[in-house]
Design a protein that fits this description.
binds alpha-D-galactopyranose, 4 domains, 20 helices, Beta-galactosidase, Chain A, domain 5, alpha+beta, EC 3.2.1.22
Length: 915
């Protein structure tokens, strides 16, 4: 890892006058580069510096945007154009010269120039000469005097290899470095000749070798790494966009026209509606907008990159502007495209699963062909998450380079990884082109959702830290950024649809005594909602269940010292509802086809502004009707039989995206109208857990599966991208309602501790003793959650790889405090667990490690039976130990977890810090 000091600042000793964009001048010798864009105007080369990494691209000779590099930060003074695969006459000369040298005796003065001096005609002659004068003298090309110092020092540095070849070199009459290099060509040529390959490789110039000479002939167009890959022009990789013009033409050669560098991040207000996006200020970020144009048609496009100073992240989006006089059909527009040069092997990591088993980590090796991770369900889905990461080789938790992408979008998405024949991979993400078509009228703009690119050179952990910090600092609603959600009790698993005043109040009274801070009334409080088959859309209080109404209920809850929250599911309407009877045309469906409504629900047509308006006003009146401080916004359906009666038949390809935009409009209006209300979004559990939703709700209901062991897997995968604070994690009752599994209260608490903790159980039925235990846990949560929510999260033991065990840790560097928990899923009697090695600590600091919840069971050594113990059992033999960070990270903690569901948890504190 790059040391902290180096990460923060990179000193530029000599920034040439051509570097503009951040006002870098030669006088400014020490420039903070993080969060800036350095543009070399001469070479049209762009370097985007985030915290400690860099992303670079340039304009190629024909005006395409060629990707050069993404990785650790490189000095802005380094020449990067040699990474380009651009074709140009200079390379032909290089190849020809090398060829000419096949049998020529190198001379100390006849040196080949690497620059583009000399006319094209001369180069052409060189090429012709080379064929006819293979035995001749040195080539007739521009000469460059060798620098004696360069030659000396290079030879001195490489003394051993020079020594090994001394005889040969002497025999060839080699006097300096350039001769040595040229001799290299000859050695290569000889080898190649012996294997009947006629052309020598000019290996000393990778640009020549890879790009114009071998590259063009062997690889074709996919050889070039592009930022915005066009189709239909001989490049058969999956394109970044697909457009169709009024005449049916699909060839779209977008070429560079101009660029501008802007402090901060321009907001996305140009879009057709407003998309959720990362927020920042002028000091934190810089944006570069590269404008491309299709010359004859004048269609314009902006590639927008925002680089952040505090995180190794870039936000990337694309804006299309129809400046032509005809409509243009947009069939595909990826938010970000990154082309990777080859690695020995590429692995794609993503999050996949199902209802009740969301976001498991999947890593697979790529081979030639295209892999798509996608949703076509109208929501980002339980099955796949809008996230993908590429790594060189199998991704490792702590080391290795990982390149992550996440889409700030909640609808149909696709992440494509396309390995082409030369082994290079294109990774891109955006709105799913399936069922998507957008006719862009003259003067209209289409803006893609934002895609976040994150680089880590410290494996998956480093990537998670970048995403966590980015979402916490730049995505969550600002007013909730630094707050912990109150501990809540949700009525769902406590009473399902039986949300009577009596039931709710008795739950509330018992919860208040245990230290619960908020009560959320879930499904069942409205219309005639006694089961899932009716009343969605009838958002008025069920007077039979709640005769006192919401205002009084909220007041009574407030009087117990608790906040009040409410569940709603506004996007759906039940067939059995007054709303549907009044507006049967408000749903997404094809009128002449029977709508399949398995649950008796339909999805409202949020493409319609009247429906959006209705929802905004209807929800506003509920939110105003009582002291509601929390809203759980649910959506228990995927979208099927997509069709909007309100949209022209030829424009039905817009409906999925317009639905999403309509939802965002409703959420944006309500969250700004009610800034005090904390939203939790939900979709049949965790079916819309994405960065788009996090823009409006600082936490998301993670899964309908509340079983603690299942949650270990779900939360473990979710943590790859999403910080613990946004992972709603509720302690539920046992036997668990989804699995019938029984686990201890402590185990269930520790799983929920690493999320936004709540209760999903009927607290009125638990024993007094358990209530006391619960109070203690809630106090612990309140004390420890700031460490977990603001700290760096580490996956110490992976339950998928290690099968029987899992361990997590959060370390808050600023406070010097950490929380660690380890879980045994399946015991293996007689076999010891490995020591639990901690991560992220300061090796030189001394830490006090305290076990926070001692065990109550141990082996009876007489019988071998595990029995309850009268005295507390500490896994380390005593309540606390003191050790250096170095010891804790290298020797680890020898914790003996002995039975299924056994756990241990520690609070760790830098002893030198004041409490
Ligand atoms: C979804 C949610 C649950 C609950 C029910 C109510 O399934 O995920 O938590 O709110 O809806 O119908």
């Amino acid at each position: 890892m790059v040391p902290e000091a180096e990460q923060a600042t990179m000193v530029v000793d000599d920034v040439g006058p051509r570097n503009v964009g951040i006002e870098v001048s030669t006088e400014e010798r020490n420039v903070r580069l993080t969060g800036t864009v350095v543009v070399d105007e001469g070479a049209k080369l762009f370097r985007l510096y985030s915290k400690s990494s860099m992303y670079a691209f340039c304009v190629d000779p024909v005006g395409r945007i060629e990707h050069l590099y993404w990785g650790k930060a490189l000095p802005p003074t380094d020449e990067l154009t040699y990474l380009s695969f651009s074709q140009g006459p200079a390379k032909l000369q290089r190849a020809a010269v090398a060829k000419k040298y096949l049998r020529a005796k190198p001379s100390a003065t006849a040196l080949v120039s690497n620059d583009a001096s000399g006319s094209d005609t001369e180069r052409g002659n060189d090429l012709a000469d080379s064929d006819s004068s293979m035995d001749g003298g040195p080539p007739n090309c521009s000469e460059r005097a060798p620098s004696p110092q360069r030659v000396e020092s290079a030879l001195a540095e490489d003394d051993s290899s020079a020594g090994a070849h001394r005889d040969t070199i002497n025999a060839l009459g080699i006097n300096n470095l350039q001769d040595l290099l040229d001799a290299g060509s000859i050695f290569r040529a000889q080898i190649d000749t012996s294997t009947n390959i006629k052309c020598p490789l000019p290996w000393e110039n990778p640009r020549t070798f890879l790009g114009e000479w071998a590259g063009a002939a062997t690889f074709g167009k996919p050889a070039k790494l592009l930022e915005f890959g066009e189709g239909n022009t001989g490049d058969y990789r999956s394109p970044s966009f697909e457009l169709q013009f009024h005449d049916g033409g699909r060839v779209c050669p977008f070429r560079y026209r101009s660029h501008r560098v802007i402090p901060g991040k321009p907001s996305m207000k140009n879009a057709n509606g407003t998309l959720p996006e990362l927020h920042t200020n002028a000091k934190d970020a810089t944006t570069v907008v590269v404008t491309l144009v299709i010359e004859k048609s004048f269609l314009e496009c902006d590639l927008v990159y925002t680089v952040f100073s505090d995180i190794d992240a870039i936000a990337r989006r694309v804006v299309l502007r129809n400046t032509t006089i005809h409509p243009v059909l947009v069939e595909k527009l990826m938010s970000a495209t990154v082309d990777f040069h080859t690695f020995d092997s590429f692995f794609l990591t993503h999050l996949s699963g199902s209802w009740a088993n969301e976001r498991g980590i999947v890593s697979k090796e790529l081979s030639m062909g295209r892999v798509c991770i996608e949703s076509c369900r109208g929501t980002s889905s339980h099955q796949h998450n809008p996230f993908a990461a590429l790594s060189a080789g199998q991704p490792r938790e702590e080391d290795g380079e990982v390149y992550g992408m996440a889409l700030v979008y909640s609808g149909n998405f696709v992440a494509e990884a396309d390995m082409c024949e030369n082994g290079r991979v294109r990774l891109q993400m955006g709105i799913n082109p399936t069922n998507f078509e957008w006719e862009l009228q003259p003067n209209e703009i289409f803006e893609s959702p934002e895609c976040v690119l994150v680089f880590s050179d410290s494996g998956l952990t480093g990537m998670s830290h970048q995403f966590h910090n980015l979402f916490r600092n730049h995505l969550f609603p600002k007013q909730f950024q630094d707050t912990v959600c109150p501990v809540l009790i949700n009525t769902w698993e406590a009473m399902y649809f039986d949300t009577t005043y009596a039931n709710v109040m008795s739950l509330a009274k018992r919860a208040a005594k245990s230290g619960v801070e908020m009560l959320v009334v879930d499904d069942g409080w409205f219309g005639a909602r006694d089961d899932a088959t009716s009343s969605l859309g009838d958002w008025y209080v069920n007077n039979e269940k709640l005769p006192e109404g919401l205002a009084m209920l909220a007041k009574n809850i407030n009087d117990l010292g608790m906040h009040f929250g409410l569940w709603v599911e506004p996007e759906l309407v039940s067939q059995k509802s007054r709303l549907y009877q009044a507006h049967p045309d408000w749903i997404l469906h094809k009128p002449d086809i029977d709508k399949d409504s398995a649950d008796g629900d339909f999805v409202l047509d949020l493409t319609r502004t009247d429906v959006q308006k209705y929802l905004i006003e209807c929800m506003s009146s509920i939110f105003e009707s009582a002291n509601i401080e929390y809203v759980k916004w649910d959506m228990n359906s995927h979208i099927t039989e997509i069709y909007s009666d309100h949209v022209a038949p030829s424009a039905q390809g817009k409906v999925y995206h317009q639905y999403c935009m309509g939802l965002y409009r409703v959420l944006r209006t309500l969250t700004s109208r009610f800034p005090r209300i904390r939203f939790e979004t939900c979709c049949g559990g965790g079916g819309r857990f994405d960065a788009g939703m996090l823009h409006y709700s600082p936490q998301i209901w993670t899964s309908d599966n509340t079983d603690a062991t299942s949650r270990l897997f779900i939360q473990h995968g979710t943590s790859l991208l999403y910080p613990p604070s946004c992972i709603s994690a509720h302690i539920s009752s046992v036997p668990n309602h989804q699995t019938l599994r029984i686990s201890s209260f402590k185990y269930r608490f520790l799983v929920s501790l690493f999320g936004s903790l709540g209760l999903e159980l009927n607290i009125t039925t638990i024993e007094e003793e358990e209530c006391a235990e619960l109070s203690m846990y809630l106090q612990l949560y309140k004390a420890l959650s700031p460490i977990i929510h603001e700290g760096d999260f580490y996956r110490l033991w992976n339950p998928v790889e290690q099968k029987q065990r899992c361990a997590w840790m959060s370390y808050h560097q600023g406070r010097g405090e950490a929380v660690v928990a380890a879980f045994l899923l399946t015991s293996d009697p007689g076999h010891y667990l490995p020591r639990l090695r901690l991560k992220g600590l300061d090796p030189a600091a001394t830490y006090q490690v305290e076990e926070i919840i001692p065990s109550t069971a141990a082996h009876n050594v007489q019988t071998g039976r595990i029995e309850a113990c009268p005295a507390p059992i500490y896994k380390l033999g005593k309540k606390s130990i003191t050790a250096s960070g170095r010891t804790l990270m290298n020797a680890g903690l020898p914790i003996h977890l002995i039975y299924d569901g056994d756990t241990a948890a520690f609070y760790i504190r830098d002893s030198a810090r004041k409490m």
